[in-house]
Structures are given as C-alpha cells and as structure tokens.
Amino acid sequence: MSATLTTTIMEPVSSLLSGTATKKEEATEEPYKYAHLMPVYSQDKYPPLEPFEHVDPGSRALSHANPRSFLDGGNVVELTPEFGSDVRGVNLATLTPDQKDQLALEVARRGVIVFRDQEDFIDRGAGFYQDWGRHFGRLHMHPTSGHPEGFPYIHLIYKDANSKYNDQGLTSIISPSSCNPPGLTTFFLLAQPKTGGDTLYSSQVLNFRSLSPVMQNFLRTLKAMHTGVDSLRATKGGARRREPIETVHPVVRRHPVTGVEALYVNKQFTRSIVGMKKEESDLLLNFLYDHIAKAGDHQARIKWEPMSMALWDNRVTAHTATVDFGHLKSRRHGARITPQAERPIPANASMKMDD
C-alpha cells in the first residue's frame, strides 16, 4: 500500500486515552485480547473493480469419493432439513487444501455452516485470515469499512458502549454486489454481547424454488441493475477508498458447482429491473423483497457463542445482522473474509450478459 495517513479508531478505550478514567478503573479493567485487531480507516485509494475469471474450489471436491470426509470426527446438526448446519469438533485452522475444497462444496450445498470452538483459527491473526481467504478466491477490499492495521482485506465490524446505533430503519436481508460478487464468505466475532446480535440467513435457493413455475420462468428472463452508490453515500463522511460501480446481474443465477438456481436481488443494492418502467420494477422487486423477508421456513438463525465462525455461500444465501443489543452497551467486534467469485451465471442459458 502507499504511504498514507491512517486513522485508528479505538472507541472502547477512549476514556483511558483521554485521561478521564479513574486509577481504580485502570487497575481493574483487563487489556482487550484483540486490541491488535481494532479497526483503522486508511486513506489509501483502491483501483476500480474489474471482471476476472474465477475457478471455484468446490468444483475440485466433486470427484472425491467422500467429499464430506473433512467432517469425520465432528458432530453435525442440521439447522433445517435443507439449509444450514452447526458443527462441533472440526478445527478449521488445520484443514488441508484438499479439505478446504470439500468445505467449499459443503457450504455451497448447505448454504451456511457455523463451526464452534475455533479459538485456534481466531488466535492465529490477520495474516492467517488473509491466507485462508485466498484459497477460495481473490480477496475483496471493502471501500469504506475499517480493517486491522496493515491488513486491508479483513473487513471489520465494531460497536461498543460509545457507538451510535442506527435504529431509524428496519433490519433487512442483504448481500454485497460487484462485477464479481462474493462466494464463500467467512465471519467470526472476537467479542460479543451476552445475548443479542444473532445473524439471520435466508436461502435464496428455497426462496426461488417456492415460487410458482410461471413466476420462476418469468424471473429467469430478467436482469437487474445493482449499485453501490447509495451504500457509499450512507457512510456519512467516512473513508471512501474506491468509487462505486453499477453492474447488471441476472435476477436468477445458477451456482457454478451445484447447478442450483437462486434469486439474486437484495434491497440494499438492487435498484431496478432492466427494461421495466419504474412502477413495474418497484412492484416486482418489492414483492421479491417481501417474499425473502417473510419466508421463515427458508431461514436459519445463528446464535453466536464465543469462538464461533460462520461460513456461507454468498451466491445462494442472503443474510442480515439483528441489531437488538444497542441498549446493552456491549462490545461487538467481528471480522469478515470475503473472497470474490465468478460473475453471476444466468439460470437462463440463452441470456446474454453484455457489459
């Protein structure tokens, strides 16, 4: 990276740095174990996003005699019959490249998997996180968020007792968008409230599959415009290290490894259906957003425990945080590793996705 000014935000210890804490507080408060992973907001400028070719690691596991052997010895609980799993007894930090390929395939098939007791992984630090993510694809650098000092590919979320919480809008299910949107995504919490802050996941495969055949066929013919302009505008003066882009994606995409079809619209980034009048586009998109939000039988809720890690396939799974813990004044500090995947493949093989 270029030698530029970096601002470090360390809100939970702001009272100590300002000298307002009492000596008693200084003596009793334990050092924060993950202070070295606090967010910084660099002023570096990132190059524009450009399309690239991606080979999904899960495709290499298709030829395995037992592509779930990486789970041998673990305890697997299915969160719902077709979506989501909860795993104990598997150390992600020690997986071989071959086992990581198996992992990618299993996450693609289950949508989201939470792995418990991952202190070995979490304590290996940001350099290890980045090396882990690169196995699954080219890493994405978030254009506005904080990251650990010197590790711009690690996206951090951070709130504590001094943070301002946005309670002006309803929680929504989101998935990021770009020319090469994310594939297998890894997220874990370094600190969390005793309760609250769960993450809700929704299967875009089941959301699509539950629609009528007439609606499915219609949606396969459509493209939608996605943009990050509004998302960056909402940063309210924060770091803005890359200019946003607008990208056209199919409304229904096909997974390159499993072949399943999935809805690919989200309220945060999808703006319009290509070729429709605004009133028509808004009517259809609002129907789909409502369908996704209310389809409780297509959702899985992850309740966070210390040292848990969630991995999901962002091509077929939408997610949202539940911001129900602001009044608790607790620290919630998380890290996300976001490899990019292929440009979305239309479920309709005859659809032309010209730039």
TrEMBL record:
<keyword id="KW-0560">Oxidoreductase</keyword>
<keyword id="KW-0479">Metal-binding</keyword>
<keyword id="KW-0408">Iron</keyword>
<feature type="domain" description="TauD/TfdA-like">
    <location>
        <begin position="77"/>
        <end position="337"/>
    </location>
</feature>
<dbReference type="InterPro" id="IPR003819">
    <property type="entry name" value="TauD/TfdA-like"/>
</dbReference>
<keyword id="KW-0223">Dioxygenase</keyword>
<dbReference type="GO" id="GO:0046872">
    <property type="term" value="F:metal ion binding"/>
</dbReference>
<protein>
    <submittedName>
        <fullName>Alpha-ketoglutarate-dependent sulfonate dioxygenase</fullName>
    </submittedName>
</protein>
<dbReference type="Pfam" id="PF02668">
    <property type="entry name" value="TauD"/>
</dbReference>
<dbReference type="GO" id="GO:0016706">
    <property type="term" value="F:2-oxoglutarate-dependent dioxygenase activity"/>
</dbReference>
<comment type="similarity">
    <text>Belongs to the TfdA dioxygenase family.</text>
</comment>
<dbReference type="InterPro" id="IPR051323">
    <property type="entry name" value="AtsK-like"/>
</dbReference>
<dbReference type="InterPro" id="IPR042098">
    <property type="entry name" value="TauD-like_sf"/>
</dbReference>
<dbReference type="GO" id="GO:0005737">
    <property type="term" value="C:cytoplasm"/>
</dbReference>
